[in-house]
Amino acid sequence: MEAKELVFPPGATRHDWVLDAALAAGLGLLTVPPYGVRGFAEGPSTWLFVSAVLMVGSLVMRRHSPLLALAGVTLAGLVQLVLSTDPMATLVAIPVVAYSVARWVPGQAARIVLAVGALGSFLAPIRWILLDLSHPSIRDLIWLMLAWFVCMGLVITPYAVGRRVRESSEAHLHRVAVAEERYRTMLTEREQDSRLAESRARTQIARELHDIVAHSLSVMIVQAEGGRAMAAKKPEAATEALNTIAETGREALSEMRRILGVLRDEPEPGRQADFAPAPRLTDIPDLVARTSDRAQLAVHGQPPRVPPALELTAYRVVQEALTNFLKHAGPQATVLVTITYGMREIGIDVLDNGIATPSAVPQNPGHGLRGMHERVASMGGRLLTRARPGGGFQVTAALPIPSQLSQQEGGYR
User: Fold this and answer.
1) Which range marks the domain in which residue 284 is found?
2) Region for 380 from its dihedrals, namely left if φ exceeds 0, alpha if ψ lies in -120 to 50, beta otherwise
3) What is the CATH number of the domain that holds 312?
4) Alpha-carbon distance 242 to 228, whole Å?
5) In-domain check, residue 243
6) In whole angstroms, what is the distance from residue 53 CA to residue 390 CA?
7) Could you give the residue ranges of the DSSP H alpha helices within 91-137?
């Protein structure tokens, strides 16, 4: 700590100056006048009056500079020790200064008031009581011991109170600082959580758009190629392919509008966002039928009553598996989608007999496979994607049904 801060501790306000001046003036009116009335023109009394004014007047500095106040009281006390054989009323300033030094001076520097007080408490009683140092009586010694005890008490007690008040104030400031730091940390964590939530939302939206666009375009491409090949031989087949393309496009556009409508803060003027329901388990048969005539569906059991997020996950897994079938299996391959609705989980198997082999499986899966793994993992399920040893590709997913739903009566519709 710098010497300036030690001598002039920061924190004294104009209000403190006024209070300290009022304190010094009040004590001065009560203690100083007697020493001015009695023989003011005589030399010793003049110096006693000056020392009394200095001792009480030093209290004006007690909060602005406690050490300077201590120096003024110490100097005045030495003058009174030399000139007066009786304790003066202005000694009431000593406990005030002892408290002020303990309260406002930081660290071990405050202990200087104890050293000065101990010295004064030892010398002053000797000056007052033992007038004849060569022949002290037992009574004088007893009074001397009591005077020592009282004088030290008038220094130590206010010092202890001042240090206690300072420690309490510092503890309060520390608690305030800790609370402010905790609040800043909370704001930082809240901002980080917001960014993470935003990142997760972007990832989920990107996954939804990928599944919708990739599947719809794959179906449209396959139907367009098939319709072009059959246009000359069977015009009615080409018409059916065009109808499928149009229906798939409209469905993809509807789902994209649903997602983009949720993203908009405000809908466009004159229209509202389209909040069509998300795909469900009962929409899977239509998904398989619309994908290709080379896709077959086998369903075991009845669709259970499960949360919408689980239904969407099952739908997207089948959708992405069929999309990969259309893109990679080849024009002659077929695929079998098997849905098993059990008591505790939903099983999904998508097996094709395409041209994929173990060596043809990419080492770094694309967004589709990674999206399937993320979806299934978020539901607490298991997913297996691999090339089949005899050719083709396998996608197997197991999605657990929440226990509170699987145990309810009437849990199946």
Assistant:
1) 280-413
2) left
3) 3.30.565.10
4) 10
5) no
6) 111
7) 93-104, 112-129
